[in-house]
TrEMBL record:
This is Polycomb group RING finger protein 6. Pfam families: zf-C3HC4_2. It comes from Astatotilapia calliptera (Eastern happy). The keyword Metal-binding applies. SMART domains: RING. SUPFAM superfamilies: RING/U-box (SSF57850). Residues 1-26 are annotated as: Disordered.
Length: 256
C-alpha cells in the first residue's frame, strides 16, 4: 500500500482571471480528507478501492481480502458481512478510486510502477490496462421504436405446454398439506404426469403416504403419459384459453 505524502503540491494558474477565481474558493489541506480516502487496515491511500455492500465501508482490495481470511466481520463496524462467504458481499468502488487518484498527486503513476516492478521481478506478464469501449452511436427515436422486442421475456421453445392445475380436494383424513400457490405452469410437452405429480408433492409438502390422482377431462391419467400425448388424446376439451387443464385430488392409498 502507498503511504500518504507529506504535503499536496500546488499548481499555479496561467491566467490572472483563474488566479482571482481560485482565491475566492477555500483551500483545504489534504489531511482533512484522510478519513475518506485512506484504508483503515493499512492506513495508506486506497488502492483498488473495494466496498462492503452490507455497511458501505471501503478498504483496499488486498487488505479486505486478507482480513476475510480470518474474520467475516467488517473491520470498522463489526457487522457480519456473510456467515460463510464474506467475499460475496464486496464490490469494486471505481468512482472513489478515481477521486483518490485525482486528489493525491502521482499516486496512480507510483502504483503502476510498483505493479510493473512486481511482475517483472517474478518473470510474469504485466497485465494490460482495461480499454474503455467507445460510446455507442446515437440512436434515433424511430430506431428505438423499431428495435423494441416484442416481449421482454422470451419463453424457450421447448416449454411448449401451459398447464392450469386445479385442486379438487383431499380425501378425509388428509389434512397436513400446503395450498398450491402456483397454479399456472409452463413445461415441456415431453414431461410426464409423474413430473406433474412430483411438482405438486414438493409445492404442497405432501407425505409419501398421500396419493395424487391427476385427471384431464373424464380421464384418469397414468404416470407414464407425456403431457403432449394427453393434450392430443383429449383434444380441445382439455384446453381452456390455450391452457391444458389438469384436475388433481389427494387420496389415501387403497388397502389391498
Amino acid at each position: 500500500m502507498s503511504s500518504p505524502p507529506l504535503g499536496r503540491t500546488s499548481h499555479e494558474g496561467s491566467a490572472n482571471a483563474s488566479d482571482s477565481d481560485s482565491e475566492d474558493e477555500p483551500t483545504l489541506p489534504l489531511n482533512q480528507f484522510y478519513p475518506y480516502i485512506r484504508c483503515a487496515l493499512c492506513c495508506g491511500f486506497l488502492i483498488d478501492a473495494t466496498t462492503i455492500t452490507e455497511c458501505l465501508h471501503t478498504f483496499c482490495k488486498s487488505c479486505i481480502v486478507k482480513h476475510f481470511f480470518y474474520s467475516n466481520k467488517c473491520p470498522t463496524c463489526s457487522i457480519v458481512v456473510h456467515q460463510t462467504q464474506p467475499l460475496y458481499n464486496i464490490r469494486p468502488d471505481r468512482q472513489l478510486q478515481d477521486i483518490v487518484y485525482k486528489m493525491v498527486p502521482f499516486l496512480e503513476e507510483l502504483e503502476r510502477e510498483q505493479m510493473c516492478s512486481f511482475y517483472k521481478e517474478r518473470g510474469l506478464d504485466v497485465p494490460k490496462p482495461v480499454i474503455v469501449s467507445p460510446p455507442c452511436p446515437a440512436v434515433t427515436k424511430r430506431q428505438k421504436k423499431d428495435n423494441v422486442p416484442q416481449s421482454v421475456f422470451t419463453v424457450p421453445p421447448e416449454l411448449d405446454v401451459s398447464l392450469l392445475l386445479e385442486f379438487v380436494g383431499a380425501e378425509e383424513g388428509i389434512c397436513n398439506y400446503k395450498p398450491l400457490e402456483r397454479r399456472y405452469v409452463r413445461v415441456s410437452g415431453e414431461a410426464t404426469v409423474r413430473h406433474v405429480e412430483l411438482f405438486i408433492r414438493r409445492k404442497m409438502e405432501l407425505s409419501p403416504s398421500c396419493q395424487v390422482d391427476v385427471v384431464c377431462g373424464d380421464h384418469l391419467l397414468d404416470h407414464y403419459q407425456s403431457l403432449k400425448e394427453v393434450q392430443n388424446f383429449v383434444g380441445e376439451d382439455a384446453l381452456q384459453d390455450g391452457l391444458l387443464v389438469l384436475h388433481f385430488g389427494l387420496v389415501l392409498p387403497s388397502q389391498s
